[in-house]
Amino acid sequence: MKTYQHWINGAHSAPASGEWLDTEDPYRGEAWARIPRGNKEDADLAVAAAHHAMHHGPWSKMTASERGRILRKIGDLLADPKNAQRLAEVESRDNGKILAEMHGQLKYLPEHWYYFAGLADKVEGAVLPVDKPDMLAMTYREPIGVVAALTAWNSPLMFFTIKCAPALAAGCSVVLKPSEFASVSSLEFAELTKEAGLPDGVINVVTGLGTEVGSPLVEHPDVAKITFTGSDKTGAKVYEAAARTMKRVAMELGGKSPNIVFEDADLDQACVGAVAGIFGAAGQMCTAGSRLLVQNSIKEKFTERLLGMARDLKLGDPMKPDTQIGPIATPPQYEKVLHYIGVAKAEGARCILGGEPATGPGLDGSQFVQPTVFTDVTNRMQIAQEEVFGPVLSIIGFDDEEEAVQIGNDVIYGLAAGVWTRDIGRAIRMSKALKAGMVWVNTYRAYSFLVPIGGMKQSGLGRESGIEAINEYLETKSVMISTESGAPSNPFLQR
Ligand code: NAD
Q: Tell me: the pLDDT tens digits for 74-126?
């Protein structure tokens, strides 16, 4: 069993506590590696390294173009098939995400690094038209400072990338604290950035429990920005703690996204989108289309079609190429998914597929849940309001566009939404009416490094990907310079 260290100041660093945590392979149900159990001392060390790198080290003296070149090299290393294969396997082992999906992700992640590599030297301030004749007014766009990135277990390499690439392009340095349930891929990736020529201390990774090593990062006076991906409950705690020192905050939280199918949709396409939207990654996605809103005129027919497809999904070893659904990543999450299935049954939703732990050859002893579909769900039920983060779909009927919007928006979240229709006018009307940071029309789960994503309402604050992402790590400074010679005649008059 491999024992990992923190990654601080460009080197391995043993935990100050002298303690490690086991990290489990959710498919095999056994510990496969040990990660450091970090504490405040480790957090302080990592922040000191990041602070030094940002303010005194070579990073602080590099031009934006030089920073961009390093980011490009990181992309190249990530694209190297040897590294991609190793990182994909490590993450799949750590959180049970199927290897096929990891391969797809690893093919795409370098594009994020290349995009922000190119953006690094396109950050421009402005010279402002000013109302004072003897004055020059300008703005600088400056890196915000040391960033603490706290991430969830479902896609650690993706979170590493979509937070660190724009932060580094802006000139910031980062201390990353991945989830204690899946830290290994982040530790391995951080080490790779050194090979790309990233100066020591620019990216640091400390691991351990949120309360023991995450919280000291949030409270640290030398951390300027928190970027968090995780549950809304923890997000609210982190937001409150960050407010005490007025830190800048970005929050990527939960969702209860509506995937809305109209009677005029291409139903084959919509069916694939509905299935992929909830059963992909075993439903462990913040953007899961967990509420399937189907127009009542086609509800019965569409439900049959969907069941036909969902019944055939192949559960199994995430490393096998034909597996479509892997295990639930963590024991508490497994319990949570089963709990919500129980809640849905108790509140009168009708279970028409699954609804139990999945067992059988290749599944026993692991945390598998059957792809589960509930119908007769009303939007006021807990199963329609709360995030399950598992392979559990709720089908809700609607009569017309107005009702679809009303139900779609009737949750505390606003992360994503799907609309399936052939009517272009309806597609546009729906995309405007839905309160969600991302609306997909005739597709679901489409992402791009060029397109911002983030939450409305209680799904979060701030945006990742696209140009907006770099602005999350920049702050505007205004500069006013007097061009007048000699002393003003009355120093107390406002100029
Ligand atoms: P979580 O909130 O339990 O943990 C997230 C991170 O915060 C972990 O690294 C954890 O150790 C840390 N943490 C916990 N307590 C802390 C504290 N007091 N101070 C500082 N850090 C602390 O979330 P999770 O269970 O790992 O992830 C699942 C959740 O993530 C789901 O709700 C899902 O919707 C959300 N998520 C959101 C997005 C998005 O982009 N919107 C993407 C993926 C996952």
A: 999 999 999 999 999 999 999 999 999 999 999 999 999 999 999 999 999 99
User: Given this model, what pLDDT does residue 489 score?
Assistant: 78
Domain spans of the chain? 2-253+459-478, 258-441
pLDDT at 485 (0 to 100): 87
How confident is residue 226, by pLDDT bands cut at 50, 70 and 90? very high
- Ligand 1, from 35, 233, 286: best to mutate by most atoms within 8 Å of Cβ? 286
Q: Architecture of 2-253+459-478 per CATH?
A: 3-Layer(aba) Sandwich (3.40)
> Which two tokens mark 135?
């004055």
Report the alpha-carbon distance of residue 395 to residue 423 in Å, rounded: 22
Average pLDDT value for residue range 308-312 = 97
Assess whether the region 2-253+459-478 and the region 258-441 belong to the same CATH fold: no
Q: What integer is the mean pLDDT of 305-325?
A: 97
Confidence at residue 491, expressed as pLDDT on a 0 to 100 scale? 77
- CATH class of domain segment(s) 258-441: alpha beta
Residue 271 known to be catalytic? no
- pLDDT band, very low/low/confident/very high, at 490 (cuts 50, 70, 90): confident
Distance 150 CA to ligand 1 centre (A): 7
How many whole angstroms from 254 Cα to the centroid of ligand 1?
9
User: pLDDT at residue 133 above 90?
Assistant: no
Q: Determine the distance separating the centroid of ligand 1 and the alpha carbon of 418, expressed in angstroms.
A: 24
